[in-house]
Amino acid sequence: MNAEQASGPLRPTFMMRTLVRGLAWDVGAPLAVYYALHLAGATDWAALLAATAAAGCRLFWTASKRHSLNPFAMLMVIVFGLGLVLSFLTGDPRFLLLKDSAITGGMGISFLVLAALGHPLTLDAAKTWRPERAAEMDRDFHSNPAAHRWHLKVSAVWGAGLIAEACVRAVLLYLLPIDVMVGLSAALAVIAFAALIAWTVWDRKRRQAAWSS
């Protein structure tokens, strides 16, 4: 039995579910609020304020459950909070749309930097969904080399994917009309997030198939 098969008390399917749910709440909820209000015609300031509030609610909820701060939710509060501040600096519509790239790009950089430091954000996302098993997940991450490598790899892929999405949006912003980019900007975020979740699920299933063979 190899290291991947001896994964300890945490089943791969459990980790997959908790990771996806955590990412959906920590990343997906604020982004969904932000772009839903954008598409409904709300001002950029109102959409950012609502997204910051959604991330803040997530931060306080997990803090009350875990009795400690959730680094991932805190990152989302900071990212959207900075976007809120930047929205006051200029009235240039292209700059406001470019700010969306700064938000996802900043998230991507955070994924990569923290993965390089040995603290993958995917682990935080999983722990926020099942706080009662956070200590067990930590032990599995530090004692199981397979789990350690997988979290670092997934965090790196998420970081690279989010940065790529930010770069594509920034390039398209200066190639397409503003009215086209308003809707396309939201679509790019949804597509990138959905693609990263789909890849994460596929990669975990692929590994499970390899373990059982």
Please specify the SSE layout and strand pairing.
Elements: H1 12-39, H2 44-66, H3 71-86, H4 93-116, H5 121-129, H6 134-143, H7 145-173, H8 178-212
Helix pairs in contact: 1-2, 1-5, 1-8, 2-3, 3-4, 4-7, 4-8, 5-6, 6-7, 7-8
A few lines on this structure:
By secondary structure, the protein is mostly helical. It contains eight helices and no strands. α1 packs antiparallel against α8 and α2 (44-66) packs antiparallel against α3 (71-86).
Q: What is the domain tally? A: 1
Number of helices: 8
* Nearest-integer average pLDDT: 75
The structural class is mainly alpha
What is the overall shape?
globular
CA-to-CA gap between the ends? 11 Å
The helix content is over 70%
Oligomeric form: single chain
Give me the strand/helix succession.
HHHHHHHH
Q: Give the percentage of residues in beta strands.
A: under 5%
Uncertain spans = 1-9
